[in-house]
Amino acid sequence: MYAVVETGGKQYRVQEGDVIRVEKLDVQAGETVNLKVLALGKDGEVVVGEGAAFAKVSAKVVEHGKGDKVIVFKYKPKKDYRRKQGHRQPYTELAIESIQG
Prior knowledge:
Layout: E1 2-7, E2 10-14, E3 19-23, E4 32-42, E5 45-48, E6 56-66, E7 70-76, E8 81-87, E9 90-100
Antiparallel strand pairs: 1-2, 1-4, 3-9, 4-5, 4-6, 6-9, 7-8
């Protein structure tokens, strides 16, 4: 059984036991989170929309962290204009505990 869930403006296909990284959530490590279900697949059938709304996907927050550094470098040739900036995107790591539906 699998589910397509939405969080942080992105969609993820998950199964029980998966560990995913999502946009940072305001939840403490060790707590459980329920995710919004968009689609549910089991036994070769896919249920989408209203039929999947009754399903529940619960995930446990494993940890919070920051991703790898991304360098943002802007320049204009021949104009002596250079700007260098780094960015590390914060994330929350979730372990999918159960899919009910």
